[in-house]
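Continuing from the previous page of notes. For each protein in this section, the sequence appears first, followed by its C-alpha coordinates. Read the first protein now.
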Amino acid sequence: MTRRARRIPPAAQLQLEGVLLAGGLRALLLQLAHPAVGHGVAAHSAFEADPLGRLRSTLRYVYVVAAGEDGLVHAAARQVGRAHRPVVSGADDAVGYDARDPALQRWVATTIADTALRIAAATWGPLPPALADELVARLGRLATALGLPAGEWPVGRTAFDAVVAAGTAELGFDATTLPVVRALVAARGAPRPVRWVMPLLLRATLGTLPPLGLEPLVPRGTPDLLPLARRLAPLTRVLPASLRRLPARRVLAAARRAAG
Protein backbone atom coordinates (compact mmCIF):
# COMPACT_ATOMS: atom_id res chain seq x y z
CA MET A 1 0.00 0.00 0.00
CA THR A 2 2.85 2.39 0.82
CA ARG A 3 4.58 1.79 -2.50
CA ARG A 4 1.33 2.32 -4.38
CA ALA A 5 0.53 5.50 -2.45
CA ARG A 6 3.91 7.00 -3.43
CA ARG A 7 2.84 6.96 -7.08
CA ILE A 8 -0.23 9.07 -6.39
CA PRO A 9 0.35 12.70 -7.39
CA PRO A 10 0.25 15.28 -4.60
CA ALA A 11 -3.07 17.03 -4.12
CA ALA A 12 -1.94 20.20 -5.90
CA GLN A 13 -1.26 18.15 -9.05
CA LEU A 14 -4.01 15.59 -8.59
CA GLN A 15 -6.69 18.24 -9.06
CA LEU A 16 -5.18 19.02 -12.49
CA GLU A 17 -5.24 15.45 -13.82
CA GLY A 18 -7.08 15.14 -17.13
CA VAL A 19 -8.70 11.85 -16.15
CA LEU A 20 -10.94 13.79 -13.78
CA LEU A 21 -12.72 15.18 -16.85
CA ALA A 22 -14.37 11.78 -17.22
CA GLY A 23 -16.62 12.73 -14.31
CA GLY A 24 -17.89 15.97 -15.77
CA LEU A 25 -21.33 14.64 -16.65
CA ARG A 26 -21.68 12.96 -13.25
CA ALA A 27 -21.00 16.21 -11.41
CA LEU A 28 -23.35 18.12 -13.68
CA LEU A 29 -26.21 15.67 -13.19
CA LEU A 30 -25.78 15.80 -9.42
CA GLN A 31 -25.96 19.58 -9.65
CA LEU A 32 -29.10 19.56 -11.81
CA ALA A 33 -30.76 17.06 -9.46
CA HIS A 34 -30.63 19.63 -6.67
CA PRO A 35 -34.05 21.29 -7.02
CA ALA A 36 -32.80 24.86 -6.58
CA VAL A 37 -29.89 24.43 -8.98
CA GLY A 38 -31.98 22.56 -11.53
CA HIS A 39 -34.79 25.11 -11.53
CA GLY A 40 -32.32 27.96 -11.81
CA VAL A 41 -30.68 26.35 -14.82
CA ALA A 42 -34.04 25.56 -16.43
CA ALA A 43 -35.13 29.20 -16.20
CA HIS A 44 -31.89 31.01 -16.94
CA SER A 45 -29.59 28.81 -19.02
CA ALA A 46 -29.55 27.13 -22.41
CA PHE A 47 -26.31 25.28 -21.74
CA GLU A 48 -27.91 21.93 -22.63
CA ALA A 49 -27.81 23.08 -26.27
CA ASP A 50 -24.09 23.84 -25.99
CA PRO A 51 -22.52 21.39 -23.54
CA LEU A 52 -19.04 22.13 -24.86
CA GLY A 53 -19.41 25.82 -24.07
CA ARG A 54 -20.52 24.98 -20.55
CA LEU A 55 -17.61 22.56 -20.19
CA ARG A 56 -15.09 25.16 -21.33
CA SER A 57 -16.33 27.81 -18.91
CA THR A 58 -16.45 25.34 -16.02
CA LEU A 59 -12.95 24.04 -16.73
CA ARG A 60 -11.59 27.56 -16.93
CA TYR A 61 -12.91 28.38 -13.49
CA VAL A 62 -11.88 25.04 -11.95
CA TYR A 63 -8.32 25.18 -13.26
CA VAL A 64 -7.84 28.86 -12.52
CA VAL A 65 -8.91 28.35 -8.92
CA ALA A 66 -6.70 25.26 -8.68
CA ALA A 67 -3.49 26.74 -10.05
CA GLY A 68 -3.96 30.34 -11.11
CA GLU A 69 -2.42 33.44 -9.63
CA ASP A 70 -4.48 35.36 -7.07
CA GLY A 71 -5.42 38.07 -9.53
CA LEU A 72 -6.60 35.51 -12.06
CA VAL A 73 -8.65 33.71 -9.41
CA HIS A 74 -10.31 36.94 -8.30
CA ALA A 75 -11.12 37.85 -11.91
CA ALA A 76 -12.61 34.43 -12.59
CA ALA A 77 -14.70 34.61 -9.42
CA ARG A 78 -15.99 38.06 -10.38
CA GLN A 79 -16.97 36.74 -13.81
CA VAL A 80 -18.89 33.86 -12.27
CA GLY A 81 -20.50 36.26 -9.82
CA ARG A 82 -21.72 38.49 -12.65
CA ALA A 83 -23.19 35.47 -14.44
CA HIS A 84 -24.95 34.37 -11.24
CA ARG A 85 -26.40 37.78 -10.35
CA PRO A 86 -29.58 37.55 -12.48
CA VAL A 87 -30.22 33.88 -11.63
CA VAL A 88 -32.86 34.49 -8.95
CA SER A 89 -36.30 32.95 -8.69
CA GLY A 90 -39.46 34.97 -8.95
CA ALA A 91 -42.06 35.30 -6.23
CA ASP A 92 -44.39 32.82 -7.95
CA ASP A 93 -41.79 30.18 -8.80
CA ALA A 94 -42.43 26.73 -7.38
CA VAL A 95 -38.83 26.39 -6.19
CA GLY A 96 -36.87 29.28 -4.78
CA TYR A 97 -33.25 29.78 -5.81
CA ASP A 98 -30.49 32.35 -5.93
CA ALA A 99 -27.28 31.33 -7.68
CA ARG A 100 -25.33 33.49 -5.22
CA ASP A 101 -26.62 31.42 -2.30
CA PRO A 102 -23.54 30.01 -0.52
CA ALA A 103 -25.41 26.75 0.13
CA LEU A 104 -25.85 26.22 -3.62
CA GLN A 105 -22.25 27.17 -4.29
CA ARG A 106 -21.21 24.59 -1.73
CA TRP A 107 -23.31 21.90 -3.38
CA VAL A 108 -21.87 22.59 -6.83
CA ALA A 109 -18.33 22.43 -5.45
CA THR A 110 -19.27 19.30 -3.50
CA THR A 111 -20.33 17.48 -6.67
CA ILE A 112 -17.03 18.33 -8.35
CA ALA A 113 -14.97 17.32 -5.33
CA ASP A 114 -16.86 14.07 -4.74
CA THR A 115 -16.47 13.11 -8.38
CA ALA A 116 -12.76 13.96 -8.34
CA LEU A 117 -12.20 11.83 -5.25
CA ARG A 118 -13.97 8.87 -6.83
CA ILE A 119 -12.07 9.04 -10.11
CA ALA A 120 -8.75 9.55 -8.35
CA ALA A 121 -9.38 6.44 -6.26
CA ALA A 122 -10.40 4.45 -9.34
CA THR A 123 -7.20 5.50 -11.09
CA TRP A 124 -4.59 5.36 -8.33
CA GLY A 125 -6.22 3.18 -5.72
CA PRO A 126 -7.58 4.27 -2.31
CA LEU A 127 -6.25 7.69 -1.42
CA PRO A 128 -4.29 7.99 1.83
CA PRO A 129 -6.46 9.87 4.36
CA ALA A 130 -4.12 12.86 4.54
CA LEU A 131 -4.11 13.21 0.74
CA ALA A 132 -7.90 12.92 0.55
CA ASP A 133 -8.26 15.55 3.27
CA GLU A 134 -5.96 17.94 1.41
CA LEU A 135 -7.76 17.39 -1.88
CA VAL A 136 -11.09 18.13 -0.19
CA ALA A 137 -9.64 21.36 1.22
CA ARG A 138 -8.23 22.46 -2.12
CA LEU A 139 -11.43 21.78 -4.03
CA GLY A 140 -13.36 23.72 -1.42
CA ARG A 141 -11.81 26.86 -2.90
CA LEU A 142 -14.25 26.48 -5.80
CA ALA A 143 -16.94 27.61 -3.36
CA THR A 144 -15.00 29.85 -0.98
CA ALA A 145 -13.63 31.89 -3.92
CA LEU A 146 -17.25 32.80 -4.68
CA GLY A 147 -18.02 33.84 -1.13
CA LEU A 148 -18.79 30.70 0.85
CA PRO A 149 -17.44 31.28 4.37
CA ALA A 150 -14.43 29.03 4.86
CA GLY A 151 -15.97 27.60 8.01
CA GLU A 152 -18.90 26.22 6.02
CA TRP A 153 -16.72 23.93 3.91
CA PRO A 154 -16.16 20.55 5.59
CA VAL A 155 -12.74 19.86 7.07
CA GLY A 156 -11.49 16.41 6.09
CA ARG A 157 -12.86 13.50 4.10
CA THR A 158 -15.11 12.15 6.84
CA ALA A 159 -16.97 15.43 7.29
CA PHE A 160 -17.07 15.88 3.53
CA ASP A 161 -18.67 12.47 3.00
CA ALA A 162 -21.35 13.40 5.52
CA VAL A 163 -22.14 16.54 3.50
CA VAL A 164 -22.38 14.45 0.33
CA ALA A 165 -24.74 11.98 1.99
CA ALA A 166 -26.98 14.74 3.34
CA GLY A 167 -27.11 16.52 0.00
CA THR A 168 -27.80 13.34 -1.95
CA ALA A 169 -30.88 12.67 0.16
CA GLU A 170 -32.46 15.87 -1.23
CA LEU A 171 -31.89 15.11 -4.92
CA GLY A 172 -34.53 14.44 -7.54
CA PHE A 173 -35.83 15.53 -10.92
CA ASP A 174 -39.28 16.91 -11.68
CA ALA A 175 -41.30 18.12 -14.64
CA THR A 176 -39.15 21.24 -14.87
CA THR A 177 -35.69 19.79 -14.48
CA LEU A 178 -36.01 16.44 -16.26
CA PRO A 179 -36.46 18.13 -19.68
CA VAL A 180 -33.17 19.94 -19.05
CA VAL A 181 -31.40 16.61 -18.74
CA ARG A 182 -33.22 15.28 -21.79
CA ALA A 183 -32.10 18.30 -23.82
CA LEU A 184 -28.57 17.97 -22.44
CA VAL A 185 -28.33 14.38 -23.66
CA ALA A 186 -29.81 15.31 -27.04
CA ALA A 187 -27.29 18.18 -27.37
CA ARG A 188 -28.95 19.34 -30.58
CA GLY A 189 -26.84 22.48 -30.81
CA ALA A 190 -23.56 20.59 -30.43
CA PRO A 191 -21.40 19.00 -33.15
CA ARG A 192 -22.50 15.58 -34.37
CA PRO A 193 -19.77 13.63 -32.51
CA VAL A 194 -20.97 15.17 -29.24
CA ARG A 195 -24.57 14.26 -30.01
CA TRP A 196 -23.48 10.69 -30.74
CA VAL A 197 -21.44 10.26 -27.57
CA MET A 198 -23.78 11.87 -25.04
CA PRO A 199 -26.08 8.82 -24.63
CA LEU A 200 -22.99 6.66 -24.14
CA LEU A 201 -21.69 9.02 -21.46
CA LEU A 202 -25.06 9.04 -19.72
CA ARG A 203 -25.26 5.24 -19.79
CA ALA A 204 -21.77 4.98 -18.30
CA THR A 205 -22.50 7.65 -15.72
CA LEU A 206 -25.70 6.09 -14.36
CA GLY A 207 -23.76 3.41 -12.52
CA THR A 208 -21.94 6.06 -10.49
CA LEU A 209 -25.06 7.97 -9.42
CA PRO A 210 -27.70 7.46 -6.76
CA PRO A 211 -31.11 6.38 -8.16
CA LEU A 212 -32.46 9.43 -9.97
CA GLY A 213 -34.80 7.86 -12.52
CA LEU A 214 -32.68 8.73 -15.57
CA GLU A 215 -32.59 5.24 -17.08
CA PRO A 216 -35.49 5.93 -19.53
CA LEU A 217 -33.37 8.66 -21.15
CA VAL A 218 -30.85 6.11 -22.41
CA PRO A 219 -31.75 4.75 -25.87
CA ARG A 220 -32.42 1.04 -25.94
CA GLY A 221 -29.34 -0.98 -26.79
CA THR A 222 -26.85 1.70 -25.72
CA PRO A 223 -23.77 -0.13 -24.36
CA ASP A 224 -22.57 0.48 -20.84
CA LEU A 225 -19.02 1.80 -21.05
CA LEU A 226 -18.54 2.02 -17.29
CA PRO A 227 -16.91 -1.42 -16.89
CA LEU A 228 -14.49 -0.58 -19.71
CA ALA A 229 -13.74 2.81 -18.18
CA ARG A 230 -12.98 1.18 -14.84
CA ARG A 231 -10.52 -1.21 -16.47
CA LEU A 232 -8.81 1.53 -18.47
CA ALA A 233 -8.57 4.13 -15.71
CA PRO A 234 -5.47 2.63 -14.05
CA LEU A 235 -3.63 2.80 -17.39
CA THR A 236 -3.59 6.56 -16.90
CA ARG A 237 -0.80 6.07 -14.39
CA VAL A 238 1.67 5.03 -17.09
CA LEU A 239 1.18 8.21 -19.12
CA PRO A 240 3.68 11.06 -18.67
CA ALA A 241 2.47 13.66 -16.20
CA SER A 242 2.87 16.36 -18.86
CA LEU A 243 0.37 14.55 -21.07
CA ARG A 244 -2.05 13.76 -18.23
CA ARG A 245 -2.23 17.43 -17.26
CA LEU A 246 -2.21 18.87 -20.78
CA PRO A 247 -5.87 20.03 -20.67
CA ALA A 248 -5.23 21.97 -17.47
CA ARG A 249 -2.11 23.63 -18.90
CA ARG A 250 -3.90 24.67 -22.07
CA VAL A 251 -6.93 26.05 -20.27
CA LEU A 252 -4.74 27.98 -17.84
CA ALA A 253 -2.63 29.37 -20.67
CA ALA A 254 -5.75 30.57 -22.48
CA ALA A 255 -7.08 32.18 -19.29
CA ARG A 256 -3.80 34.03 -18.77
CA ARG A 257 -3.76 35.24 -22.37
CA ALA A 258 -7.34 36.48 -22.05
CA ALA A 259 -6.44 38.35 -18.87
CA GLY A 260 -3.69 40.14 -20.75
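Done with the first. The second protein uses the same format. Note its length before scrolling.
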Amino acid sequence: MATTSDIRNGMCLEFNGNLVTVVSFQHVKPGKGPAFVRTKLKNITTGKVIENTFSSGHKIQETRIERRPYQFLYKDDMGYNMMHLETYEQISLDKDLINNIDLLKEGEPVEVVVHADTETPLYCELAINVTMEVTYTEPGIRGDTSSASSLKPATIETGATIMVPLFVNTGDKIRIDTRDSSYMERVKE
Protein backbone atom coordinates (compact mmCIF):
# COMPACT_ATOMS: atom_id res chain seq x y z
CA MET A 1 0.00 0.00 0.00
CA ALA A 2 1.28 3.41 -0.94
CA THR A 3 0.44 6.74 0.66
CA THR A 4 -0.16 10.21 -0.73
CA SER A 5 3.54 11.04 -0.28
CA ASP A 6 4.30 8.43 -3.01
CA ILE A 7 2.07 10.08 -5.65
CA ARG A 8 3.86 11.13 -8.85
CA ASN A 9 2.78 12.07 -12.38
CA GLY A 10 2.00 9.07 -14.58
CA MET A 11 1.39 6.77 -11.60
CA CYS A 12 -1.45 4.27 -12.07
CA LEU A 13 -3.92 3.87 -9.18
CA GLU A 14 -7.05 1.92 -8.42
CA PHE A 15 -9.59 4.57 -7.42
CA ASN A 16 -13.31 3.92 -6.82
CA GLY A 17 -13.07 0.59 -8.67
CA ASN A 18 -11.49 2.15 -11.78
CA LEU A 19 -7.93 2.34 -13.04
CA VAL A 20 -6.73 5.95 -13.22
CA THR A 21 -3.43 7.68 -13.96
CA VAL A 22 -2.22 10.76 -12.13
CA VAL A 23 -2.15 13.68 -14.58
CA SER A 24 -0.97 16.25 -12.02
CA PHE A 25 -0.76 16.63 -8.27
CA GLN A 26 -0.02 19.37 -5.76
CA HIS A 27 0.86 19.01 -2.09
CA VAL A 28 -0.89 21.79 -0.14
CA LYS A 29 -0.08 22.81 3.43
CA PRO A 30 -2.52 25.52 4.42
CA GLY A 31 -1.75 27.82 7.35
CA LYS A 32 -4.70 26.39 9.23
CA GLY A 33 -5.75 22.74 9.17
CA PRO A 34 -4.11 19.53 7.97
CA ALA A 35 -2.09 19.12 4.76
CA PHE A 36 -3.68 17.53 1.68
CA VAL A 37 -2.83 16.49 -1.87
CA ARG A 38 -4.90 17.91 -4.75
CA THR A 39 -4.83 15.64 -7.84
CA LYS A 40 -6.15 15.38 -11.38
CA LEU A 41 -6.85 11.75 -12.27
CA LYS A 42 -7.55 10.42 -15.78
CA ASN A 43 -9.76 7.33 -16.06
CA ILE A 44 -7.94 4.84 -18.32
CA THR A 45 -11.07 3.29 -19.84
CA THR A 46 -13.18 6.41 -20.42
CA GLY A 47 -10.50 9.11 -20.70
CA LYS A 48 -12.44 11.38 -18.35
CA VAL A 49 -10.32 13.62 -16.08
CA ILE A 50 -11.56 14.16 -12.54
CA GLU A 51 -10.18 16.20 -9.67
CA ASN A 52 -9.82 14.62 -6.24
CA THR A 53 -8.34 15.73 -2.94
CA PHE A 54 -6.65 13.22 -0.64
CA SER A 55 -5.86 14.00 2.98
CA SER A 56 -2.15 13.76 3.77
CA GLY A 57 -1.11 10.20 4.65
CA HIS A 58 -4.17 8.64 2.96
CA LYS A 59 -3.55 5.06 1.76
CA ILE A 60 -3.82 4.52 -2.01
CA GLN A 61 -3.76 1.34 -4.07
CA GLU A 62 -1.00 1.52 -6.69
CA THR A 63 -1.36 -0.68 -9.78
CA ARG A 64 1.54 -1.84 -11.94
CA ILE A 65 1.27 -1.23 -15.65
CA GLU A 66 3.82 -1.94 -18.36
CA ARG A 67 4.43 -0.19 -21.67
CA ARG A 68 5.33 -2.68 -24.38
CA PRO A 69 6.56 -1.96 -27.92
CA TYR A 70 4.31 -3.33 -30.66
CA GLN A 71 3.88 -2.82 -34.39
CA PHE A 72 0.50 -2.52 -36.11
CA LEU A 73 0.26 -5.25 -38.75
CA TYR A 74 -3.26 -5.25 -40.22
CA LYS A 75 -6.96 -4.94 -39.46
CA ASP A 76 -9.42 -7.80 -39.92
CA ASP A 77 -12.83 -8.81 -38.54
CA MET A 78 -11.23 -9.82 -35.21
CA GLY A 79 -9.79 -6.34 -34.61
CA TYR A 80 -6.45 -4.60 -35.00
CA ASN A 81 -3.56 -7.07 -35.02
CA MET A 82 -0.33 -6.02 -33.31
CA MET A 83 3.03 -7.80 -33.07
CA HIS A 84 5.38 -7.46 -30.07
CA LEU A 85 8.72 -6.15 -31.39
CA GLU A 86 10.88 -8.34 -29.15
CA THR A 87 8.97 -11.61 -28.73
CA TYR A 88 7.01 -11.51 -32.05
CA GLU A 89 3.87 -12.48 -30.13
CA GLN A 90 0.70 -11.25 -31.84
CA ILE A 91 -2.39 -9.85 -30.16
CA SER A 92 -5.65 -8.45 -31.46
CA LEU A 93 -7.04 -5.21 -30.01
CA ASP A 94 -10.52 -3.73 -30.21
CA LYS A 95 -10.70 -0.29 -31.87
CA ASP A 96 -11.95 1.27 -28.61
CA LEU A 97 -8.55 0.59 -26.98
CA ILE A 98 -6.57 2.55 -29.61
CA ASN A 99 -6.04 6.30 -29.16
CA ASN A 100 -6.30 8.36 -32.41
CA ILE A 101 -7.13 5.33 -34.52
CA ASP A 102 -7.66 7.50 -37.61
CA LEU A 103 -3.87 8.19 -37.68
CA LEU A 104 -2.87 4.51 -37.47
CA LYS A 105 -1.17 3.11 -40.56
CA GLU A 106 0.14 -0.40 -41.25
CA GLY A 107 3.71 -0.96 -40.07
CA GLU A 108 3.63 1.90 -37.53
CA PRO A 109 5.21 1.32 -34.10
CA VAL A 110 2.83 1.71 -31.14
CA GLU A 111 2.97 1.27 -27.37
CA VAL A 112 0.46 -1.05 -25.75
CA VAL A 113 -0.13 -0.39 -22.05
CA VAL A 114 -0.78 -3.66 -20.22
CA HIS A 115 -2.02 -4.33 -16.67
CA ALA A 116 1.01 -6.18 -15.26
CA ASP A 117 -0.92 -8.50 -12.91
CA THR A 118 -3.67 -9.66 -15.28
CA GLU A 119 -1.80 -9.24 -18.61
CA THR A 120 -4.84 -7.35 -19.95
CA PRO A 121 -4.24 -4.65 -22.59
CA LEU A 122 -5.61 -1.34 -21.26
CA TYR A 123 -5.00 0.98 -24.22
CA CYS A 124 -2.71 1.57 -27.19
CA GLU A 125 -0.83 4.81 -27.93
CA LEU A 126 0.71 5.95 -31.20
CA ALA A 127 4.06 7.72 -31.34
CA ILE A 128 3.88 11.42 -30.40
CA ASN A 129 4.16 12.40 -34.05
CA VAL A 130 3.64 10.55 -37.32
CA THR A 131 4.55 11.39 -40.92
CA MET A 132 1.75 11.07 -43.48
CA GLU A 133 1.28 11.92 -47.13
CA VAL A 134 -1.47 14.34 -48.14
CA THR A 135 -3.70 12.54 -50.65
CA TYR A 136 -6.02 15.45 -51.38
CA THR A 137 -6.32 19.13 -50.55
CA GLU A 138 -7.62 22.18 -52.38
CA PRO A 139 -4.87 24.32 -53.85
CA GLY A 140 -4.10 27.40 -51.75
CA ILE A 141 -4.57 30.81 -53.36
CA ARG A 142 -1.46 32.99 -53.15
CA GLY A 143 -2.02 35.98 -50.88
CA ASP A 144 -5.16 34.53 -49.28
CA THR A 145 -3.98 34.94 -45.67
CA SER A 146 -6.17 37.83 -44.60
CA SER A 147 -8.16 35.65 -42.22
CA ALA A 148 -6.82 35.01 -38.74
CA SER A 149 -6.71 31.26 -39.28
CA SER A 150 -5.29 30.52 -42.72
CA LEU A 151 -5.90 26.78 -42.64
CA LYS A 152 -7.58 24.40 -45.06
CA PRO A 153 -8.72 20.77 -44.74
CA ALA A 154 -6.45 18.05 -46.13
CA THR A 155 -7.11 14.32 -46.44
CA ILE A 156 -4.14 12.13 -45.50
CA GLU A 157 -3.30 8.56 -46.56
CA THR A 158 -5.29 6.95 -43.71
CA GLY A 159 -8.44 8.84 -44.73
CA ALA A 160 -8.41 11.27 -41.79
CA THR A 161 -8.91 15.00 -42.37
CA ILE A 162 -6.38 17.40 -40.83
CA MET A 163 -6.34 21.20 -40.92
CA VAL A 164 -3.12 22.37 -42.65
CA PRO A 165 -1.65 25.74 -43.74
CA LEU A 166 -2.40 27.05 -47.22
CA PHE A 167 1.06 26.22 -48.63
CA VAL A 168 0.59 22.43 -48.19
CA ASN A 169 -0.27 20.67 -51.47
CA THR A 170 -1.40 17.21 -52.54
CA GLY A 171 1.55 14.80 -52.43
CA ASP A 172 3.40 16.65 -49.63
CA LYS A 173 4.47 14.73 -46.55
CA ILE A 174 3.49 16.33 -43.25
CA ARG A 175 4.21 15.58 -39.60
CA ILE A 176 1.13 15.32 -37.36
CA ASP A 177 0.92 15.54 -33.55
CA THR A 178 -1.09 12.46 -32.50
CA ARG A 179 -2.11 13.91 -29.12
CA ASP A 180 -4.49 16.42 -30.72
CA SER A 181 -4.38 15.47 -34.44
CA SER A 182 -2.83 18.81 -35.40
CA TYR A 183 -0.39 19.78 -38.15
CA MET A 184 3.21 20.23 -36.98
CA GLU A 185 5.37 20.78 -40.08
CA ARG A 186 5.98 19.86 -43.70
CA VAL A 187 8.62 17.13 -44.12
CA LYS A 188 11.30 17.47 -46.78
CA GLU A 189 12.57 14.20 -48.21
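What the second structure shows: The chain has no helices and 16 strands. The chain has a mean pLDDT of 89. We return to this in next week's lecture.
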